Amino acid sequence: MSQPLRLGIAGLGTVGVGVVRIIRQHAELLTARSGRDISISAVSARSKNKDRGIPLDAYAWEDDPVALATRDDVDVFVELMGGSDGPAKAATEAALAAGKHVITANKALLALHGQALAEQAEAANLSLRYEAAVAGGIPVVKALTEGLAANEITRVMGVMNGSCNYILTRMEDSGLNYQDIFAEADGLGYLEADPQLDVGGIDAAHKLAILASIAFGTRVNFDAIDLEGIERVSIEDITAAADMGYKIKLLGVAQMTGRGLEQRMQPCLVPASSPLGQLQGGTNMVVLEGHAVEQVVLRGPGAGEGPTASAVMADVMDIARGFALPVFGQPAHTLKDAKHATSVLPAPYYLRMGLVDKPGALAKITTVLGDAGVSIDRMRQYGHAQTSAPVLIVTHKATRADIDAAIAAMEGTGVLTSAPVALRIEEV
Amino acid sequence: MSQPLRLGIAGLGTVGVGVVRIIRQHAELLTARSGRDISISAVSARSKNKDRGIPLDAYAWEDDPVALATRDDVDVFVELMGGSDGPAKAATEAALAAGKHVITANKALLALHGQALAEQAEAANLSLRYEAAVAGGIPVVKALTEGLAANEITRVMGVMNGSCNYILTRMEDSGLNYQDIFAEADGLGYLEADPQLDVGGIDAAHKLAILASIAFGTRVNFDAIDLEGIERVSIEDITAAADMGYKIKLLGVAQMTGRGLEQRMQPCLVPASSPLGQLQGGTNMVVLEGHAVEQVVLRGPGAGEGPTASAVMADVMDIARGFALPVFGQPAHTLKDAKHATSVLPAPYYLRMGLVDKPGALAKITTVLGDAGVSIDRMRQYGHAQTSAPVLIVTHKATRADIDAAIAAMEGTGVLTSAPVALRIEEV
């Protein structure tokens, strides 16, 4: 039997407590599977005396995560504090500098500083692992870096923020509007302290940026993501989409195009009958497409004590087993700076608008669309054709630029009673 | 850069050709990700001169797979011949004896001889890997042995034979009976040379036996599986199940109970709205449940050149990266002989029977069920209550023994016009 693998855990929130619990309650299982005892040397958190429901007396306490990260009796620094800068970054850098492996659940840290941290870790032959940073309990980082390692990845796609999916599915189920359900989710504690991280799509975009780097061998580039949150998704659109056989999801898509890497995180329509369309509540789903494997879909809990701790512990087990691989699946110095492509790939679009109650209004809109090169696949007008009831249009494939041009032209017609909503329909 | 990792590939059917194709066409990608060149030293198959659509001249040819497996210029023997005994077993044993790692897609070999092969491999510190043996392109072996390694697994479940799922979904879509769709699938080349391996559930049961061993730390025990194929699934049952909100799937379930390990591979009803219920055609799905992660669902192609080759190559990449772990996730000598439990866990059951056109017939059946301790959740009788139209019953939870006792008693009532069908309803 090898020496125990000794952890130092910084951050004792839900996930940290979950990790401690697994190590305390399933020690024998962990040892049987990894060939080593897994132990905790020391822990760190903001408040020492808070009751966390688990005994922590057996572990040394450090107020300072940097001190924890560099202790002699720590082999692996487990960073569960969060935040892209500040203590999380300082302690991670200090751990790597001190020759410790690092496991983190911190998507913001990796999305913003992943390249530098990966270079630091790899130069020192250390592991920097982050299964828990993407899609909670779903072992998607492993699936992409290892399970599909022989695939040229063609597309990565997913619903990776459970709070947003909860809000969107609750809106549909209840018929209530965004503001009401946002308040409900906030009251239930489903949102981050800064809810903009969730509903603004930022948290999900951090995850997408990480997966895109692995998938395409490119440097993580969060700033290049076309980012739109769910704050402007209306109950009218959810209802209208459902009526036409679609669901609205906050969908992340990363895809290599002839003009560069396209990364989008935005509300999209997906077929209601597709696996993504059927995803309810806080569950996450990631779709991985590769030249050989075609399509693999992974579904599981995106957050929570057990699932996230399960992902952290998978990284612990891999380190205990001696598995080492580059942070983003190939050496960081070989990752390319991807050309940033925005909305290169055409798609069908969903358009919703209100028209004035005048003869010929609809004809003006269809003419404008035709002039912009956007052809109509399906159209519905609710109520009598000459009222101001909403018009729904599903277009054939068009680029975002064509759609934007068409909308600008529509606004010049004088027949709109509300600004058109345009949402991409993703082929899944 | 390390030395190349040199493969010897035995079997050049669909999967073997797929593996050669990936190595030829994506060499640079494989090297970037694994840190080593992947090369093919030699190949072997039944017929040397068959045109397989790829050039093989660069590789040495061996008629004898044992000779291939033991060549000095082979580091990894890739066994893609199939068959639980004969050349596949002989060559695998020879490869391990000669100090070669082995990768196989051969579920029968592992389900029947996995324990002995694992002990041989581990005694020699060699890898014996088999991602492609279970659920085609889905990286489920990796998810279970590594991604969920810190979980006490509570249940493993899945649809793992695409041909059976194709037949069942085609029956439902077409309304045609089993014999017609079986002939269609056979004509399309969807079935094994011995179709009993597919429709008898044997192939799927091989896969379940392997997953159960990993999940529960038990010696692979194919013979302990409660096995029933799809040959007796009637279009009447598919239609009736659909009418009550269910689909019929050939579902494998492995679960540790207080009385031992229960392994079942049998046609079951699952809710039509569940991910398993929605699975169409040849796609596979595996559901993994663990104490921490709750539930992870993996979905992907269960067969085919690209997907299966993708799984074989994932094992190649892991070996190239130097990852080594015990064959079934913990050392083979520590795997326990699980007590074999049959149908310990109660479940609701679906019952279908025809009754004679006589007053009181239905009352006799419900009385018999009540006497056997089986209570009725829902019941439907089609047509007039006093005709011989079928009666459908969904029971509350009951054990298989109670259901069997109730059926035996029903048969003594003299009111049946057809033998009752009983199918378990799995809670998914």
Automatic annotation (TrEMBL), chains A, B:
Active site: K207
Domain ACT per the UniProt entry, residue ranges: 350-424
Keywords on record: Amino-acid biosynthesis, Methionine biosynthesis, NADP, Oxidoreductase, Threonine biosynthesis
NADP in keyword set: yes
Gene3D superfamilies reported for this sequence: 3.30.70.260, Dihydrodipicolinate Reductase, domain 2, NAD(P)-binding Rossmann-like Domain
SUPFAM superfamilies listed in its UniProt record: ACT-like, Glyceraldehyde-3-phosphate dehydrogenase-like, C-terminal domain, NAD(P)-binding Rossmann-fold domains
GO molecular function: homoserine dehydrogenase activity; NADP binding
Residues bound to NADPH: K107
Pathway(s) annotated for this protein in UniProt: Amino-acid biosynthesis; L-threonine biosynthesis; L-threonine from L-aspartate: step 3/5; Amino-acid biosynthesis; L-methionine biosynthesis via de novo pathway; L-homoserine from L-aspartate: step 3/3
InterPro entries (alphabetical): ACT-like_dom_sf (IPR045865), ACT_dom (IPR002912), Asp/hSer_DH_NAD-bd (IPR005106), HDH (IPR016204), HDH_cat (IPR001342), NAD(P)-bd_dom_sf (IPR036291)
GO biological process: methionine biosynthetic process; threonine biosynthetic process
EC number(s) on file: 1.1.1.3
Protein residues bound to L-homoserine: E192
NCBIfam families, sorted: PRK06349.1
PANTHER family: HOMOSERINE DEHYDROGENASE (PTHR43331)
Annotated family: Belongs to the homoserine dehydrogenase family.
Identification of the protein by name: Homoserine dehydrogenase
Naturally occurring in which organism (per UniProt): Ascidiaceihabitans donghaensis
